[in-house]
Design a protein that fits this description.
The strands form 2 sheets. The protein has a 3-stranded antiparallel beta sheet. The chain is elongated, with a radius of gyration of 25 Å. The protein contains 11 helices and 5 strands, in the order ααααββββαααααβαα. By secondary structure, the protein is mainly alpha-helical. It has 2 domains: 63 residues, no CATH class; 237 residues, SecY subunit domain (Preprotein translocase SecY subunit, Orthogonal Bundle). The relative contact order is 0.11.
Length: 311
């Protein structure tokens, strides 16, 4: 985190010194160009990053849920009303109503998919150890449709943000800068195609890292577990791999739709990409953090013998 903070602070200050930090502002923002001023600005930015990390850890230790996730959630939610109001003040109240309706529909769909899971039944054989009998129980392996979460969308959007950032260091008349400006606009077909393909790739890649069918099958075999209709060991691993590939295909398609929906919605709404108050990553973060916080609250209430937050 510290390394990424230093890198982002250095990039931001370099763009500010060259007058390219804001597209509509060519004024010299930083008057003092000494090395000491440059270092002090980086230190101040890093101190702000450290304070935010400290607050996030305090919320995690003494509050409910993940502290950093909640800070991101509040930051996104706090900007949403002002962005909608700015669209309405431009005389586009119909677009505001459409955005709110779209947000509610997508939220319902995301909650449904994020909570959905494929349950693989697992039975454990009975074993006699001394005079006691162990095993003989039936359980299941819960496989979520979206096992990778919001990570693929974040990876894809972060990589696609690098070429425009690099283009800011070039001259506007350079051919490569003009090519990046034309093809890496959020509404362009090239950008959306690459965005979708990278989201698909990172979904399968991240799922393959986090879920290993061979390891799960070996653990089941070690403790006497098996999936009805499949022998323990390699047949179980092949079946799990087949199921996880089908589930991941549906989850990857779901992430692509959520990621591209805001960029496609601006066309009928006649809005620019900067006017759209939320993106695919924003939706997944807000709803994901909300669901996780509700689960944490329910867990705390059940530990103290209270009724659940949601019945």
């Amino acid at each position: 985190t510290i390394f990424l903070g230093i890198l982002q602070a250095t990039t931001t200050i370099s763009l500010a010194r060259s007058g390219q930090l804001f597209q509509s502002c060519n004024q010299d923002i930083i008057k003092d160009r000494s090395v000491l001023t440059f270092i002090m600005m980086i230190i101040v930015m890093m101190a702000g990053t450290g304070v935010i990390m400290w607050l996030g850890e305090l919320i995690t230790e003494r509050g409910i849920g993940n502290g950093m996730s909640l800070l991101i959630f509040t930051s996104i939610a706090a900007r949403l009303p002002a962005q909608l109001l700015s669209i309405g003040q431009a005389g586009k109240w119909g677009s505001v109503a459409a955005i709110v309706a779209l947000l509610l529909l997508v939220a319902i769909a995301v909650v449904y998919v994020e909570q959905a899971q494929r349950r693989i039944p697992v039975q454990y054989a009975k074993r006699m150890i001394g005079r006691r009998q162990y095993g003989g129980t039936t359980t299941y392996i819960p496989l979520k449709i979206n096992m990778s979460g919001v990570i693929p969308v974040i990876f894809a959007s972060s990589i696609l943000a690098l070429p425009p950032m690099a283009a800011q260091f070039g001259k506007p008349d350079d051919q490569w800068v003009q090519w990046i400006s034309a093809h890496f606009t959020q509404g362009s077909s090239f950008y959306l195609t690459i965005y979708a393909l990278m989201t698909l790739f990172f979904t399968f890649f991240y799922t393959a890292i986090t879920f290993n069918p061979d390891e799960v099958a070996d653990n089941m075999k070690k403790y006497g577990g098996f999936i009805p209709g499949y022998r323990a060991g390699r047949p179980t691993a092949e079946y799990l791999r087949y199921v996880i590939n089908r589930i991941t295909s549906a989850g990857a398609l779901y992430l692509v739709i959520i990621a591209l929906l805001p960029s496609l919605a601006i066309i009928p709404l006649k809005l620019s990409s900067s006017q759209m108050p939320f993106g695919g990553t924003t939706l997944l973060i807000i709803i994901g953090v909300g669901l996780q916080t509700v689960k944490e609250i329910n867990t705390q209430l059940q530990q103290h013998h209270y009724e659940g937050f949601l019945k």
